[in-house]
Amino acid sequence: MQACRLAVTDLACQRGERVLFRGLSFALHAGSAFHIAGPNGIGKSSLLRILAGWLRPLAGTVEREGTIALLDERTALDPHQMLGKALSFWQRLDGPADNEAARLGLPPLWDVPVRFLSTGQKKRAGFARLLGQGAPIWLLDEPLNGLDQDAVRLIESLTADHCEAGGICVIASHQPVNLPMLTSIELAEYAA
Amino acid sequence: MIAPLLRRDLALLLGGRRGNPVLPLLFFLAVAMLFPFAVGPDAVLLARTGGGVIWVAALLAAILPLDRLIAPDLERGFFDQWALRGIAEELVIAIRMVAHWLSFGPPLMLAALPAAALLGISGETLARVELGLLAGTPGLAAIGVLIAALTAGLRGGAALAGLLLIPLAVPILIFGAGALAADGGSGIALCGAISLLLAAIAPFAGGAAVRAARDA
């Protein structure tokens, strides 16, 4: 896996008139998993979008080495398409990858249009897209939402494997995440 | 990288998933059909004004699919995922512009044939209308994609898009319809020049608009 590093120093984020958090610093190296905890609306998603480079922080810097993959509630799969075809669009862009779809339990859903998938199934499809991208830095926004017990364990083991292989996982979730080598912060402690 | 994007765009726009591509054509033909009922069956008057009617109908038909050109991809996170893969918004918009033109330009030129018959337009005028449409519709596609990108993040963007397109399309209409006059060759050339200019600007302006919608 490509070398990766992600460090932020003294980050502050403003949305509208409101400063969501300030003074946030952390540094992540290959193999680390990072859990951003906190209630809804505290700025977890905004923080991920800053890390991805889509939002300008109010203050502070982000240093990043390595490409990014992001998973949030938007699956980026065409709703009317069969799941297999929708995923193969991304595969054509990302190049052939190790086929993890079987591990995610997706093959039986190949011929189901994406709009008929349940929340949990969509989440797993999003993970297939994420894995196919092969990027070292994962930004996961509420990855466990709508998943049953087995799927939660599956996602946790996929994330653990990714970190073990030398990747970085940043997980924004209000739910507890069970991972080895997990460092955790409460974003509420940095609220302005 | 370009081929999968273009294939997806064409499948969406022509496959009826982003609005039926036949609807603008039917709309276009309906205008050509209704016009003689409204002004009466005076063959001379129809032949003289028919070319202009075809141009106005083409312009209005180009507005119909605007709200589905960019907004759904922005909402569903496609643009974010492309950005992560280093695919520039400008490239996506340029490809979308080509796909949009292919989905309405050539079909419209084809539909102009029955429309010309309905309006009793002479073969010579029809040839000029077709040439004008060939020169002008790429410009309409460029304006359409640009406005779709600008209004993608807005509530009520669809209605606004129609209103914004009309003033921007006026130059194309003036030169395209102006070319219908007997010595109108330069009108077609100017129409083509405007189209080229718009097609060159639209990807950059549209790309900036998509990025601005993301930062909001």
The low-pLDDT segments of chain B are none
For the largest beta-sheet of chain A, the strand count, sense and barrel status come to: 5 strands, parallel
Residue-averaged pLDDT of chain A, rounded?
88
Principal-axis shape of chain B: elongated
Roughly how many Å apart are the termini of chain A? 37 Å
SS element count, helices of chain A: 4
Strand order of the largest sheet of chain A: 5-6-7-3-8
* Amino- and carboxy-terminal Cα gap of chain B: 28 Å
Order of helices and strands of chain B: HHHHHHHHH
Number of helices of chain B: 9
CATH architecture level-2 label of chain A: 3-Layer(aba) Sandwich
Radius of gyration of chain A: 17 Å
Number of domains of chain A: 1
Provide the helix percentage of chain A: 25-40%
User: Quick one: which chains have the greatest interface?
Assistant: A-B, 24 and 19 residues
The name of the CATH superfamily of chain A reads P-loop containing nucleotide triphosphate hydrolases
Quaternary state, please?
heterodimer
| Named CATH topology of chain A | Rossmann fold
Strand portion of chain B: under 5%
What does this structure look like?
The complex is a heterodimer of chains A (192) and B (216). By secondary structure, chain A is an alpha/beta fold. In chain A, 27% of the residues lie in helices and 28% in strands. Chain A has a single domain (30-56, 65-185), classed as Rossmann fold (3-Layer(aba) Sandwich). Chain A has a 5-stranded parallel beta sheet with strand order 5-6-7-3-8, sandwiched between helices. In chain A, helix 2 (83-94) packs parallel to helix 3. With 216 residues, chain B is mainly alpha-helical. Chain B has one domain (2-215). Helix content of chain B is 82%, strand content 0%. Chain B starts with a helix and ends with a helix. The interface between A and B is medium-sized, with 24 and 19 residues.
